[in-house]
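Handout, page 2. Input:
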Amino acid sequence: MISDTDNSLPNRRIVYRALVFGDSGLQCRLITEQRTANPRVLNLSMTGVAVRLDAADCAFFQFGTEAKVELRFKGDYFEAMGTVVRSAQTNTAFHFPVVEQSLDSNPPRVLAKIVMILQRDMLTRQSRGSGR
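Output:
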């Protein structure tokens, strides 16, 4: 049995995920040697992004695939290498290993700004009862 104080397992969810609404203005581009895709972002955190791919793109972004992830939001730009850590139908999650390693010492300010704005938007919508 695992207790709340058991530190033997890594906590992979140490950061908050912001749900991304379709009208948020966040744009994403995924780039590999074989494919470039422009998915819809489902959620974003300081350690990764979950996206919905077009069906034609799914075969190019399977578990373990590395891609350059570009995010554009209200004049800000962020990029990082991401690795696919989860894939189910057209929903795919990318982890940003380099960003996670820098969270304690020097988190990327642009990414932090984008996540904070999206979190505020999400909380505002939830308090008003607005859906996605």
